[in-house]
TrEMBL record:
It comes from the Eukaryota. PANTHER family: 5-NITROIMIDAZOLE ANTIBIOTICS RESISTANCE PROTEIN, NIMA-FAMILY-RELATED PROTEIN-RELATED, FLAVIN-NUCLEOTIDE-BINDING PROTEIN. InterPro entries: Pyridox_Oxase-rel, Split_barrel_FMN-bd. This is Flavin-nucleotide-binding protein. Pfam families: Pyridox_ox_2.
C-alpha cells in the first residue's frame, strides 16, 4: 500500500476549529476542487484597492508533466479566464514567483436539522488551496489545459465540438497555472447532534422533527438551443447526466450516517 501524501500544515491552511473534520491529504482536497463547478479565487488587487478581490472561475487539478497522475499525487490547479481580466493582468506582471492566490470550493451534501437553531448545520465538503499563479505560455500545455477544463464541464465534450480553437480564440483565452504550496479540506458528515439539555427534554423532542435532508446537484433534461441542427441528444451528454445524478445522490445519502454517542457533529 502506497503512502498517503499530504500538504504541509502552515499558518495559512491549518484548521483551528473542529480540527477533527480537517484533512490535509491530497486526494480528498483535489477531489473536492474537481467536483466543484465553480471555484472562488481570491487575490490582492494592489495597494490602490483596500479590498481583496474574489472571482468565480472554472478550473481543474491536473499535471501536464505527468498526465496519468491521480488525485492522491501532487497536482497543479489550472484556471480558465479572459485575456484582459484583472487577475490575468496581475499574473502577467507578477515577479518570477507568480501571483499569490487562494482557491476555494464547497459542496453541500445535506441540511442538518436539529432541536435548536444553534445546533443546525450542513453536511459539506470544502477545500482551499494556496499557491502562485503564472500564465501558461506553452501552446501544447495550454491546449491540454483547455481540454482538461472543457471535459470537466461535461465529460468528452472537447472531442464533440469544433476543435482545436482558432488563433483568435487562443489569443483571447488565458490559462493560469497555480503551483500549489499548501491546502486543506474540511468534511462534515453524519446526523444530528444536540445538547443534552435539549435531547433529554421530552417536551422538546416530542414536538420538533430532527433529521437530515440530503442535498445533491441534479442535471436536468437537455434543452435544444443555438444553431446546432442535431436533433437527438448525443450519448456523451445523456450518459454523463445519468452518471453524475446517480453519483451526486449517492454521495449525499452516504453522508447521512448514525452519529456515535458523544460525537461532536455541529
Amino acid at each position: 500500500m502506497g503512502r498517503t501524501l499530504a500538504y504541509p500544515k502552515r499558518i495559512s491552511n491549518t484548521a483551528n476549529r473542529y480540527k477533527h473534520r480537517a484533512t490535509y491529504d491530497l486526494g480528498p482536497i483535489h477531489s473536492i476542487i474537481n467536483d466543484s463547478q465553480v471555484l472562488h479565487v481570491s487575490f490582492n488587487p494592489g495597494p490602490e484597492d483596500p479590498f481583496p478581490a474574489i472571482l468565480p472561475m472554472i478550473g481543474q487539478m491536473g499535471s501536464y508533466e505527468y498526465p496519468s497522475a491521480d488525485m492522491n499525487e501532487p497536482l497543479d490547479c489550472y484556471l480558465h479566464g479572459y485575456v484582459s481580466s484583472r487577475i490575468m493582468n496581475l499574473a502577467r506582471s507578477s515577479d518570477g514567483q507568480g501571483l499569490p492566490i487562494c482557491v476555494a470550493a464547497t459542496k453541500v451534501d445535506g441540511l442538518v436539522l436539529s432541536l435548536t437553531p444553534n445546533s443546525h448545520s450542513y453536511n459539506y465538503r470544502s477545500a482551499i488551496l494556496h499557491g502562485y499563479a503564472h500564465l501558461v505560455t506553452d501552446e501544447e500545455e495550454k491546449l491540454w489545459a483547455m481540454k482538461l477544463i472543457t471535459n470537466s464541464v461535461l465529460a468528452n465534450r472537447w472531442d464533440n465540438t469544433r476543435v482545436p480553437p482558432d488563433r483568435a480564440e487562443m489569443q483571447s483565452t488565458v490559462i493560469l497555472k497555480v503551483k500549489v504550496v499548501d491546502g486543506s479540506g474540511k468534511i462534515r458528515d453524519g446526523g444530528v447532534s444536540d445538547e443534552r439539555k435539549d435531547s433529554s427534554s421530552e417536551e422538546i423532542t416530542g414536538r420538533i422533527w430532527t433529521g437530515v435532508v440530503p442535498v445533491w446537484e441534479t442535471f436536468g433534461q437537455p434543452v435544444p438551443s443555438g444553431e446546432g441542427k442535431v436533433g437527438e441528444v448525443p450519448s456523451h451528454i445523456t450518459s454523463y447526466i445519468e452518471l453524475k445524478n446517480a453519483q451526486n445522490r449517492a454521495q449525499a445519502e452516504a453522508a447521512v450516517k448514525v452519529t456515535l454517542p458523544g460525537e461532536e457533529q455541529h
